[in-house]
């Protein structure tokens, strides 16, 4: 039997094999890749800890570029390779989900639902709506010294700060019929456990709050029967963003106890096919990627009580916000007493860290265990060195995606390394070759033809019981 091929039939699929900095992203020797791989641009491989190993066919509309010698192609590409292959068309809208998906939170963007926070519970879900609002601007005096680094010093200026907050309201719980998709117009936060076949699509960014697992597959096991447990013929998940998919760092969790928590540190388990379709319209940092939140951590200074007086927002009383040029933010030598505090690494940028002001942010955060597939416009970062090679000024300009050159923090317990982010354990879900998630983007080549693939009929209809 034949069916239209979807993006989920590839373990890794990219429009361009470059990062958001528009530089090549390499495959290295410590990587073993399962599932077909395709890129519409060149694919770069580097002889670092040996050459990578691809277990399934690899194709590129361009060519393979090798650094560190020339490998034995049969040892690298165990199922062969193709250069100058037809390009896969990347559309920037989740057309099938928009057309067929249910829209339980409205059929257009909502000012009162700026964030839709969904906790998946099998075939049902709970939901909270977040509405971001701004306080009246506050004027904070900038001093040349301030607790806890010294006494209140001399005034050298003022910061005018518009603080932001999120007001949450509970939405009505719902269900997703087996074999259906859901479309959300506002930013989507997602976590929980899936039963049945369902796809969640979103016109904005999707944030993965916590583990996303299958009801009928033990966490850490393969759903496709290639591991130690039987094949899961019930649960299939698609996650499609028309912008980006990000692993969330932390939040004030209104689904739990209302307190602020770090999540996904250490480790996150993700079951499903991921697809990030964002069109940055010339701004590469806005292109669709699967990546992680809070990539350049900095120490923040919480409020401090001294001599019976509480001093609030020390960072904002010691440094200019937004950063001025010069001085740069957050250099230890910027004005506000930094040069008098050599033990002070520099403050965090307000609201860049979702847990700001966080005193000990995490750098190395563990491992991503993905059982599924990833399609994205660009190769999203999952690990950073801690210094941004695109900028040498220490100037943080988040509006233009300049993050400065240095990051500070501590590693998750038992995590090794000196960078920031995650190690990867990606396992392709071979069920997606024949049973993709509902309404997942279909593969179309630049010649206009739909790709058809022969599938195992046992995957086409999922039985109602495992």
Which range best describes the helical content: under 10%, 10-25%, 25-40%, 40-55%, 55-70% or over 70%?
under 10%
Largest sheet: 11 strands, mixed
Low-confidence sequence ranges = 331-343, 452-466
Average of pLDDT: 89
Structural class: mainly beta
> What is the oligomeric state here?
single chain
Nutshell version of this structure?
With 466 residues, this protein is mainly β. The chain is 3% helix and 35% strand.
Strands, helices and their partners?
Elements: E1 2-4, E2 12-14, E3 26-27, E4 32-33, E5 37-39, E6 43-46, E7 53-54, E8 58-60, E9 64-67, H1 73-76, E10 81-82, H2 95-100, E11 115-122, E12 124-134, E13 138-143, E14 155-161, E15 164-170, E16 174-175, E17 180-184, E18 187-194, E19 197-202, E20 206-214, E21 236-241, E22 245-247, E23 250-252, E24 260-262, E25 268-276, E26 290-292, E27 304-306, E28 309-311, H3 314-318, E29 364-376, E30 383-384, E31 396-397, E32 402-403, E33 420-428, E34 452-454
Task: Walk me through the structure.
This protein is mainly beta and 466 residues long. Helices cover 3% and strands 35% of the residues. The strands form nine sheets. Strands 2, 5, 8, 10, 17, 19, 21, 25, 29, 30 and 33 form an eleven-stranded mixed beta sheet that branches. The longest helix has 6 residues, at 95-100. The protein is globular, with a radius of gyration of 24 Å. It starts with a strand and ends in a 12-residue tail after the last strand.
């Amino acid at each position: 039997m034949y069916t239209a091929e979807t993006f989920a039939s590839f373990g890794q699929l990219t429009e361009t094999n470059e990062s958001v900095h528009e530089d090549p992203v390499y495959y290295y020797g410590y990587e073993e890749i399962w599932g077909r791989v395709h890129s519409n641009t060149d694919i770069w491989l580097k002889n670092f800890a040996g050459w990578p190993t691809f277990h399934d066919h690899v194709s590129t509309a361009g060519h393979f570029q090798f650094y560190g010698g020339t490998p034995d192609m049969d040892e690298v590409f165990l199922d062969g390779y193709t250069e100058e292959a037809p390009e896969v068309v990347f559309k920037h809208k989740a057309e099938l989900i928009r057309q067929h998906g249910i829209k339980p939170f409205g059929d257009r963007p909502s000012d009162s639902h700026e964030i839709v926070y969904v906790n998946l519970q099998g075939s049902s879900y709970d939901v909270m709506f977040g509405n971001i609002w701004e306080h009246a601007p506050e004027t904070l005096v900038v001093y040349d010294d301030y607790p806890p680094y010294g006494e209140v010093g001399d005034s050298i200026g003022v910061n005018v700060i518009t603080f932001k907050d999120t007001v949450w309201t509970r939405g009505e719980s719902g269900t997703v019929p087996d074999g259906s998709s859901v479309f959300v117009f506002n930013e989507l936060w997602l976590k929980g456990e899936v039963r049945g076949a369902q796809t969640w699509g979103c016109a904005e960014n999707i944030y993965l709050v916590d583990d996303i697992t299958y009801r009928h597959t033990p966490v850490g096991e393969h759903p496709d029967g290639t591991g130690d447990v039987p094949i899961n013929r019930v649960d299939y998940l698609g996650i499609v963003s028309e912008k980006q998919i990000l692993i969330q760092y932390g939040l004030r969790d209104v689904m739990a106890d209302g307190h602020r928590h770090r999540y996904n540190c250490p480790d996150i388990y993700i079951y499903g096919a991921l697809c990030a379709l964002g069109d940055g319209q010339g701004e590469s940092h806005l292109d669709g990627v699967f990546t992680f939140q809070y990539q350049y951590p900095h120490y923040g200074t919480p409020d401090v009580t001294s001599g019976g007086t509480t001093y609030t927002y020390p960072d904002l009383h010691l440094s200019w916000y937004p950063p001025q040029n010069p001085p740069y933010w957050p250099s230890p030598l910027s004005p506000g007493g930094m040069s008098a505090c050599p033990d002070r690494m520099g403050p965090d940028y307000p609201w860049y860290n979702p847990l700001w002001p966080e005193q000990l942010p995490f750098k190395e955060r563990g491992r991503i265990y993905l059982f599924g597939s990833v399609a994205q416009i660009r190769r999203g970062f999952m690990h950073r060195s801690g210094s941004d090679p695109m900028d040498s000024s220490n100037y943080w300009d988040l509006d233009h995606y300049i993050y400065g050159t240095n990051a500070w923090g501590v590693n998750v317990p038992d995590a090794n390394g000196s960078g920031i982010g995650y190690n990867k354990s990606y396992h392709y879900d071979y069920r997606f070759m024949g049973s993709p998630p509902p309404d997942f983007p279909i593969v179309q080549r630049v010649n206009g033809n739909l790709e058809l693939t022969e599938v195992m009929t046992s995957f086409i209809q999922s039985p109602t019981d495992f």
